[in-house]
Amino acid sequence: MESMALRRSSMRQLQRCMRTPCPLYLDFLAPRLGQHTRRFASTTSEAPPSPKPRYVLSKQQREYLDSALRVNQAGEIAATLIYKAQTPQVVRSHPHLRPLMKHMYEQEAGHLETFNRLVAKHEIRPTAMYPVWHAAATFLGWSTAALGREAAMACTEAVETEIGTHYNDQVREILSWEADAERRGEELDEELKEMLGIFRRIRDEELEHLDHAVANDAKEAKPYDPLVDVIRLGCRTAIKISEKI
Ligand SMILES: [Fe+2]
Ligand SMILES: [Fe+2]
């Protein structure tokens, strides 16, 4: 039921985007000319006026964020589906893992909610690959859990290694913009600062999942190396594709 609801909501979002032209840029990060748009005004009206001028992002930086949010939403959809497919099998043979699986799933569901909100707010086009990622993530979760607890944990280790690195790259990129802004005597938009905080928090939670997987014998999976290598390659490929499509 939950996955159907998720699917319906994402499909509705896709259909909305197909009916109305989706802006390429994040409005709140648009150049100064765009700062009087409704959304921008509504999101910053409560912030105290800053003594420093706002750092204006380049077209390339705005496109980077557009891709980043699309990929992050796609990744979190996949993460929730993987845990959803793994949990029944893992918990059936290892009931003591129920709280851990529930905890990780709930965190992923929270991440997805966050990116659904950001994607909708900034009118980002969700990935058109949604049906493919949906099928692939469900199959990955189901098949690794069928191989056993260790393989399920190795899947988490592989996915979280790639996703954690991916979020970390985004954090570093925004920090480099912050440093650039400081050099110019400017500062980042409040919403961008908030987004940086969100990326940091989610990165840390993904790395926490990675630690849980290793602590629960991910490295005992057989065959460990090919399994982890294939999943990591799949994640990197999905990220690259979702950046564009
Ligand atoms: Fe996540
Ligand atoms: Fe995660």
TrEMBL record:
What Gene Ontology molecular-function terms does this entry list?
A: 3-demethoxyubiquinol 3-hydroxylase activity; metal ion binding; oxidoreductase activity, acting on paired donors, with incorporation or reduction of molecular oxygen, NAD(P)H as one donor, and incorporation of one atom of oxygen
Does the entry feature the keyword Transmembrane, yes or no?
Answer: no
Q: Name one GO biological process term.
A: ubiquinone biosynthetic process
Reported cofactor(s): Fe cation
What pathway is it annotated to?
Cofactor biosynthesis; ubiquinone biosynthesis
User: What domain of life does the UniProt record list for this protein's source?
Assistant: Eukaryota
Protein's name in the database:
5-demethoxyubiquinone hydroxylase, mitochondrial
What is the originating organism of this protein? Penicillium oxalicum (strain 114-2 / CGMCC 5302) (Penicillium decumbens)
Report which gene this protein is encoded by: COQ7
